[in-house]
Amino acid sequence: MRRSKRRRAAAVVISYTGSRMVCLWPPESNKLKNILITGGAGFIGSRLANHLIASGHRVIVLDILSPQIHGADPASSPLFRSLDRRVEFIRGSVTQRTDLMQALAGVDTVIHLPAETGTGQSM
Ligand SMILES: NC(=O)c1ccc[n+]([C@@H]2O[C@H](COP(=O)([O-])OP(=O)(O)OC[C@H]3O[C@@H](n4cnc5c(N)ncnc54)[C@H](O)[C@@H]3O)[C@@H](O)[C@H]2O)c1
Fold it and tell me: Whose CA is closest to 107, among 10, 36, 11?
């Protein structure tokens, strides 16, 4: 029988209620090692990044630090500041090939969250 050469897409299922975040999938979450979170400085991404770091994964964040969400000075953005220092942060855009290629180096899972929703600032 001929084997398919297509790679399986990675999937992560996170349940988030209040201040508690639980990784539901994959069950053996230690299989995830090098995780890129695009838009990872945002409301969901920053919490997820800290959760994954605490679970022992390597986390790379690619985020444009949109002023609409983080203000004119990202250094004073509470969401950006909440990122664990162990996160490898790349300021850039998913729409820029060079930024994306830099962020993807050595990564096995991508969690894609870029948006202009600004959920955190509305709360
Ligand atoms: N927050 C919620 O309750 C909720 C619920 C359901 C779905 N979602 C979805 O999850 C995603 C993330 O939501 P959120 O609340 O974290 O959003 P958010 O607005 O807080 O964060 C989005 C992040 O994406 C970044 N970004 C914007 N454009 C970018 C680009 N071109 N390249 C890289 N980064 C970029 C921003 O700077 C920001 O840090 C959105 O698609 C949203 O619709 C959110």
Answer: 36
Q: Whose CA is nearest to atom 40 of ligand 1?
A: 115
Q: What is the pTM for the complete model shown?
A: 0.83
**Domain ranges, residue 100:** 32-114
Taking the C-alpha atoms of residue 74 and residue 1, their distance in angstroms, rounded to an integer, is 54
Whether 27 is covered by a domain: the verdict is no
pLDDT value of residue 33: 80
CATH for 43 = 3.40.50.720
Nearest CA to ligand 1 atom 3: 119
Residues with CB under 6 A from ligand 1: 38-39, 41-45, 62-66, 69-70, 93-95, 113-120
Each residue's pLDDT tens digit, 48-70: 999 889 888 899 999 999 999 99
Q: What is the pLDDT of residue 56?
A: 84
Indicate whether 61 belongs to any domain.
Answer: yes
